[in-house]
Design a protein that fits this description.
By secondary structure, this protein is an alpha/beta fold. It folds into four domains: 8-23 and 175-318, Molybdenum Cofactor Biosythetic Enzyme, Chain A; 29-46 and 144-174, Molybdopterin biosynthesis moea protein, domain 2 (Alpha-Beta Complex); 53-136, Molybdopterin biosynthesis moeA protein, domain 3 (Beta Complex), CATH 2.170.190.11; 330-401, MoeA, C-terminal, domain IV (Beta-clip). The chain is 20% helix and 30% strand. The protein has a seven-stranded mixed beta sheet with strand order 1-19-21-22-18-14-17, with helices on both faces. A six-stranded mixed beta sheet has the order 8-5-7-6-10-9, with no helix packed on it. Strands 20, 23, 24, 25, 26 and 27 form a six-stranded mixed beta sheet that branches. A hairpin with a 4-residue loop joins β9 (115-117) and β10 (122-125). α4 (229-241) packs across α5. The longest helix has 19 residues, at 300-318. The chain binds adenosine monophosphate and magnesium ion. Adenosine monophosphate is lined by residues 183, 185, 187-188, 200, 202-205, 249-253, 297-300.
Length: 403
């Protein structure tokens, strides 16, 4: 029986509907939480800034004392960052440095560039500040009691900085996903070994491992599994026992040497899809025991692209990301012709040129890995669509798929 043909959107919808986020959580130091997914809302215990403070090196004043634009005021005190000054007496100025708390009574800061020396212990304020000038107000960034990061946030540099700014030293996160991988194909050889006639290097192992590392998963690599039903079933069983997800490459076509389908069917359940996309096409999705199963195609570019399109959002959802953001895509000008329409949704490897348009890699073959290195990203070209130079196409940088 011919497997059903699905659109990219249909396949994605099935995957995302099936994904169950991991339940277990753990506390980790904020310093080690990069890439993890928050398990609970995080509230600020303090205002940030915690008090009014100065944005500039200069003088803290009462704005009303400086209305003339040439006020000479005695300098009553000196307040470096991290030190607390005395209340500011009317008619005086306090020397103050960026980040220092405003003394009580001051309501503005005049930057030092707008002042001049005025004899021993005094300063000429050559500017009439408005109330609040150069003052960072208490709580203007974060209000105590507010949710700064909701559960389901994937923590990046920005989120970690924000968490630290309200003093959070530890964060509750979802446990890491455990992902098992293996690679089918009797032709596969590891780099470092001599290449026998008819053999190829197992490049997918390197691509897939790096992609999984990027998403912070714990990886168990079962290596190359021979093209036999027995070996494939054994590896699946072992992997299913202690992993959330099993990912394989190759063997998901319907040839005699493709054992993944019967093996997963024997050990669990499987949907084998033909996806109307190029590169890509065959994709297997199922479950073995407690583990999900995704079988990627063997062709290296197909395997890479199907990971970006399908495994990425699935992984994010398993990790507990609340709303996996769709990769940002941008309308960009094609600086090439693509005259032959395909029935399938094409994902063309393209590069941004100096004129701000897109160039196309000359060989779009699904085994041509150089296209993925040369390219900056993918053009999402809908089924049946030709492209003429000058037209707009939808472009997604690879970097968008890696977050
Ligand atoms: P398959 O999906 O097993 O029919 O493989 C399709 C194509 O991808 C064949 O040309 C394979 O040799 C190639 N291929 C399969 N697995 C890998 C791999 N791990 N690394 C590189 N190429 C592969
Ligand atoms: Mg094969």
């Amino acid at each position: 029986m011919k497997p059903p043909m699905l659109t990219v959107a249909e396949a994605l919808a099935v995957l995302c509907a099936a994904a169950r986020p991991v339940a277990e959580t753990e506390w980790v130091p904020t310093l080690e939480a990069n890439g993890r997914v928050l398990a609970e809302d995080q509230l600020a215990g303090i205002d940030v800034p915690s008090a009014d403070n100065t944005q500039m090196d200069g003088y803290a004043v009462r704005a009303a004392d400086c209305a003339s634009g040439a006020a000479v005021l005695p300098v009553s005190q000196r307040i470096p960052a991290g030190h607390v000054g005395q209340p500011l007496q009317p008619g005086t100025a306090a020397r103050i440095f960026t980040g220092a708390m405003l003394p009580a009574g001051a309501d503005a800061v005049v930057m030092q560039e707008q002042t001049a020396p005025a004899g021993e212990g005094s300063v000429m304020i050559q500017h009439a500040p408005r109330v609040g000038e150069w003052v960072r107000r208490v709580g203007e960034d974060v209000r105590a009691g507010s949710v700064i990061l909701p559960a389901g946030t994937r923590l990046r540099a920005q989120e970690l900085g924000l968490a630290a700014s309200v003093g959070l030293a530890r964060l509750p996160v979802k446990r890491r996903l455990r992902v098992a991988v293996f690679f089918t194909g009797d032709e596969l050889t590891m780099p470092g070994e001599p290449l026998a006639p008819g053999a190829i290097y197992n490049s997918n192992r390197f691509t897939l491992r790096a992609l999984l590392e990027n998403f912070g998963t714990v990886i168990t690599d079962f290596g190359i599994v021979p093209d036999s039903l027995e070996a494939t079933r054994n590896t699946l069983r072992e992997a299913a026992a202690s992993h959330d997800l099993i990912i394989t490459s190759g063997g998901v076509s319907v040839g005699e040497e493709d054992h993944v389908k019967p093996a997963v069917e024997a050990e669990g359940k499987l949907n084998l899809w033909q996806i109307a996309m190029k590169p890509g096409k065959p994709l297997a999705f199922g479950e073995v025991g407690q583990a999900f199963f995704i079988g990627l195609p063997g062709n290296p570019v197909s395997s890479f692209v199907t990971f970006l399109l399908f495994v990425r959002p699935f992984l994010l959802q398993l990790q507990g990301v609340a709303q996996a953001r769709a990769p940002l895509s941008f309308p960009m000008r094609a600086d090439f012709d693509w005259p032959k329409a395909d029935r399938r949704n094409e994902f063309l490897r393209a590069r941004i040129n100096a004129a701000g348009g897109l160039d196309l890699f000359k060989n779009q073959g699904s085994a041509v890995l150089t296209s993925t290195v040369w390219g900056d990203g993918l053009i999402d070209n809908p089924p049946g669509q030709t492209i003429r130079a000058g037209e707009l196409v939808r472009f997604t940088p690879f970097s968008e798929y890696l977050q």
